[in-house]
Amino acid sequence: MTDVLLQVERLSAWHGGAQILFDIDLEVRRGEVVALMGRNGAGKSTTLKAIMGMVARRRGSVRFMGRELARAEPHERARQGLGYVPEDRRVFTGLSVLENLEVGRQPPRRWPDGSPAPTWTPARLFELFPNLGAMPHRPGGQMSGGEQQMLTVARTLMGNPYLVLLDEPSEGVAPVIAEQMAHMILQLKAQGASILLSEQNTHFAELVSDRGYVLEQGQMGGVGELAGDEAGPGSHSLVDHEDRRRAGR
Ligand SMILES: Nc1ncnc2c1ncn2[C@@H]1O[C@H](COP(=O)(O)OP(=O)(O)OP(=O)(O)O)[C@@H](O)[C@H]1O
Ligand SMILES: [Mg+2]
Fold first, then answer.
1. For ligand 1, atom 4, which residue shows the shortest CA distance?
2. Reduced to 3 states, what is the DSSP secondary structure of residue 222?
3. Contact (CB, 8 A) for 80 and 65
4. Which of 11, 20, 24, 196 to mutate to test the pocket of ligand 1 (most atoms within 8 A of CB)?
5. Which residue, of 63, 108, 209, 248, has the fewest CB within 10 Å?
6. How many Cα neighbours within 13 Å face the side chain of 157?
7. 13-17, 18-22, 173-177, 207-211: which has the minimum mean pLDDT?
8. CA dihedral defined by 239, 169, 185, 37, rounded to 10 degrees?
9. Which tens digit of pLDDT belongs to each residue from 151-203?
10. What confidence tens digit (pLDDT) does each residue in 100-111 have?
């Protein structure tokens, strides 16, 4: 198999009668951090949900690790090693940090070539999230929003996913937590993780990702203000020109 982990082709999705996504194409390779950017309501969360099979009405191809998952149930996708941290991060409020982590545990995985895929344990995760390591027995309900957010990411990693879909890691958290999230993403990448994250904050996206896609009103290839009119050199390098070309720009 090639090093393409996720290949999405002509993905469309509807909420009720309204079409939200229009023939989205994107791909993520092994070891990459890819940003899916776009404004409020552009369809970022819907894209991640559709990749996870969580939008009832959808069309198109989602190939993951060489397998077509378009018809698979969300739990089957999770079992195949597709991790997902939704926008409304929820922890089990009555369970401790450690117990929340146990809920996410799945067996270690191997790449098709037999080499081990990134494997996570509470101890390794506590190195990545020292805040959590300082409160292993704290009930989820007694943690700050930012801490709960870290816990949902950590719980997803306990499933040893080949690829993590991360919906707006910087959204709605204090700047200091956003900074920790950015640091965490860079660390994850250094440890071999592959991530597709949605992000409205261009600065955050540029800081953590190798390249990015821009969604505009459910269509791929918008450049808009996100790539920045006054943006300096480097900004555009985030936008994959090949994808814009394919999108007919
Ligand atoms: N469950 C739903 N039912 C109906 N419409 C929805 C639903 N979820 C999203 N939408 C609509 O779909 C469009 C895309 O929403 P989506 O949440 O995917 O955008 P987003 O890029 O993630 O935005 P944000 O930055 O606010 O998170 C919006 O017009 C939104 O109102
Ligand atoms: Mg969203």
1. 15
2. coil
3. yes
4. 20
5. 248
6. 27
7. 173-177
8. 0
9. 999 999 999 999 999 999 988 888 888 888 899 999 999 988 999 999 999 99
10. 999 999 999 999
For residue 200, report the distance from its CA to the centre of ligand 2, in Å: 9
Q: Which of 145, 214, 144, 149 is nearest to 184 (CA)?
A: 149
What is the best residue among 15, 55, 167, 214 to mutate for testing ligand 1's pocket, by most ligand atoms within 8 Å of CB? 15
* DSSP code string of 127-144: HH-HHHHT-TTSBGGGS-
Q: How many CB atoms lie within 10 A of CB 115?
A: 8
Distances (CA, A) of 162 to 124, 197, 216: 17, 14, 28
Distances (CA, A) of 114 to 62, 109, 117, 159: 24, 9, 9, 18
Binding pocket residue ranges, ligand 1, CB within 6 Å: 15-16, 20, 38, 40-46, 200
Supply the pLDDT for residue 2. 64
Q: Is the pLDDT of residue 221 over 90?
A: no
Q: For the structural domain made of 4-86+160-246, what CATH number should be given?
A: 3.40.50.300
User: What is the amino acid identity at position 65?
Assistant: M
What tokens does 194 get?
A: 């592959």
Q: Coil, helix or strand for 12?
A: strand
3-state secondary structure of 45: helix
**Ligand 1 atom at minimum distance from 46 CA:** 18
Which pLDDT band holds residue 26 (cuts at 50, 70, 90)? Answer: very high
- Could you tell me the distance, in angstroms and rounded to a whole number, from the CA of residue 248 to the centre of ligand 2? 25
Asked if 100 and 129 count as a contact pair (C-beta separation under 8 A), the reply is no
